[in-house]
């Protein structure tokens, strides 16, 4: 907001006002204006629709005041832009504070969810000793599959498993009719190696009647886009989905890492059964 306000106040050429707003909001700029608001805040369809509506309104207002008339109208245009952008930013921040997606996560461990088992998936053990005595390792840190249903998503705070295929069965806090799933990975910008090749690529989700069920009901097959947002939500594809207390996440491939896959947070959204 401060960057946008300073830019608008410093404008002397009114003809450059609209391109500036477009660049700051939608990221079409190649100069040093910084990341667009849509990159700094929550990239949601609702936010992008609001920004598009604002751009349309600005262009419409500008068309009513061509040439010299734009100079007398510029103050009102600036004030209107600041008011509407402030409203959009406030809505985005409210969404951000609501767990960034604004949807209840029924798999969240602190809300009652739990990891039941990982079938035959083998956890990748770290080679760095967490505790040593006189140079001899006493205890190696082990990453737990529980990281998948915990909210702390920081580089390395994930469940790493060997290879590119893995399974995790989650008991939900309550019985629900699933409506969507959210898969989260760290952005490439904060990855220690500058790559997220260990991120899941193709994955599928199943609904289970009980924890020992070998083959559940397929709820959807999806692809996590490594070039997209770090948090990606996918709607249930099986519109005839029943009510379930257990879900199984199957990672079928990753984005190229030959040794392991890092699974960060997985969320399950839906309507609680009455």
If you had to describe this structure to a student in words, what would you say it looks like?
This protein has 274 residues and is an alpha+beta fold. Helix content is 26%, strand content 27%. The protein is built from five helices and eleven strands. Strands 1, 5, 6, 7, 8, 9 and 11 form a seven-stranded antiparallel sheet that branches. It has a two-stranded antiparallel ribbon with strand order 2-3. Strand 6 and strand 7 form a beta hairpin. The chain is globular and about 65 Å long. 24% of the residues are buried.
Percent range for β-strand residues = 25-35%
- Count of DSSP H/I helices: 5
Rg value: 24 Å
Spell out the helices and strands N to C: HHHHHEEEEEEEEEEE
The count of β-strands is 11
* Category from helices, strands and their pairing: alpha+beta
Q: On the 0-100 scale, what is the average pLDDT?
A: 78
| N- and C-termini, Cα separation | 44 Å
The description of the largest β-sheet is:
7 strands, antiparallel
Helix content: 25-40%
The coarse overall form would be globular
Oligomeric status: single chain
What ranges have pLDDT less than 50 throughout 5 or more consecutive residues? 28-35
